[in-house]
């Protein structure tokens, strides 16, 4: 066996060292981490669909752990509708109603958005004034 063959035999143990998400995620805005987590989850799902019960290509994360990470991160944003989408993904077989905590969160976020819009009316009018262009 050559050194190259032995590396292929140990590919399952070497795989986690190639995961760059933990290295780059601390330097990204939260909103930029979500596409990475979605990509990670799609890789897991593709791997599970293509995996014919061979252990050599097992993913390093479970789909449930990636979804849990997405839900944990989204709590620190105002992305309520996206959180509701994730909730529906997780509870596919359950009810499609929005939980009360998400509805309350949505009302708070949209209330703040409206408050900020009202505070920016003067600036908006200034920017829309054709005479000043």
Could you walk me through the main structural features you see in this protein, from its secondary elements to its overall organization?
There is one protein chain. The chain has 133 residues and is an all-alpha fold. Helix 4 runs antiparallel to helix 5, helix 5 runs antiparallel to helix 6 and helix 6 packs antiparallel against helix 7. 5% of the residues are buried. The N terminus is likely disordered.
Largest sheet: none
Low-confidence stretches: 1-15, 53-58
Number of helices: 8
- State the helical fraction: 55-70%
The portion of residues forming beta strands comes to under 5%
What is the average of the pLDDT values?
79
Q: Structural class, from helix and strand content? A: mainly alpha
What is the straight-line distance between the termini?
74 Å
* Whole-angstrom Rg: 22 Å
Shape label: extended
Strand segment tally:
0
Helices and strands, in order, run as: HHHHHHHH
